[in-house]
Design goal:
With 219 residues, the chain is of the alpha/beta class. It has one domain (11-212): Spore Coat Polysaccharide Biosynthesis Protein SpsA, Chain A, CATH 3.90.550.10. It is built from seven helices and six strands, in the order βαβαβαβαββααα. It has helices at 34-50, 67-70, 85-94, 112-121, 150-155, 166-173, 206-212; strands spanning 14-20, 56-61, 79-80, 99-103, 127-131, 139-145. Strand 2, helix 2 (67-70) and strand 3 form a beta-alpha-beta unit. Helix 1 (34-50) packs antiparallel against helix 7 (206-212). The N and C termini lie far apart (34 Å). 41% of the residues are buried.
């Protein structure tokens, strides 16, 4: 990812944080432990962010005590314990972030390029989003310059990555069009039926792939 001089935030001040928020009622394939499945998705998603060049990876814990989730990170990874997106962005700003992206924990095959596109969009807008393309909608990722503008801080009081119409609500809260551009969409794996989106020929998602071995993907 190449910066446009004078437009995008400094690469060293970019953070990408994966949000670990265990679902209350996980939907998993028969014969697979729900916690193992959740952690496989989380670890693969974290590996996507940890592999980004010139971006600091982080993990967000809500609830704050998740030792199993912390165990999937590389040594030295910043751990943020915040229940709200505004709190997460503020914590990342306190760590030195001038721009940050918060990533859903169930996108193990997310192409790194899509995260890069969100950061690039921040060169001309204060925020950008990647919408989930499958049922349930919500957001795969939300990126913003820091500190957050007031309108976005207010809007995020009632919106998170799981809010089905999150993108529409955030755009409606913006004082003018163009303040929340939409990057290419992707999918999240929230139900067994969502496994059909996984492409066995696509590199990555190794932990999820290993766990699903012997369990045919839903089509």
């Amino acid at each position: 990812m190449t910066d446009a001089p004078g437009r995008t935030p400094a690469a060293s001040a970019r953070f990408a944080a994966v949000l670990s928020r265990p679902p209350r009622t996980p939907d998993v394939p028969p014969g697979i432990d729900p916690d193992d499945f959740r952690l496989a998705l989380l670890e693969d998603t974290y590996e996507v962010v940890a592999g980004l060049e010139l971006v600091t990876s982080a993990l967000v814990l809500d609830p704050p005590d998740q030792p199993d989730a912390e165990a999937v990170t590389w040594p030295g990874t910043p751990i943020v314990r915040e229940p709200s997106l505004t709190g997460v962005f503020a914590a990342l700003h306190a760590l030195g972030a001038e721009a940050a992206a918060i990533i859903a924990p169930d996108a193990p095959d997310l192409p790194p390029l899509l995260v890069g596109k969100l950061f690039r969009a921040l060169g001309s807008a204060p925020s950008a989003a990647c919408q989930a393309e499958n049922a349930g909608r919500g957001l795969v990722a939300l990126a913003a310059r820091l500190p957050l503008p007031g309108w976005l801080t207010t809007a995020l009081h009632d919106v998170d990555l799981d809010t089905p119409d999150a993108l529409a609500r955030l755009r409606a809260a913006a004082p003018r069009p163009g303040l929340m551009p939409q990057g290419p969409g992707w999918h999240r794996l929230r139900t067994v039926d969502d496994l059909r989106f996984l492409d066995p020929g696509l590199e990555g998602w190794e932990n999820t792939r290993a766990l699903l071995e012997g369990h045919p993907l839903t089509h």
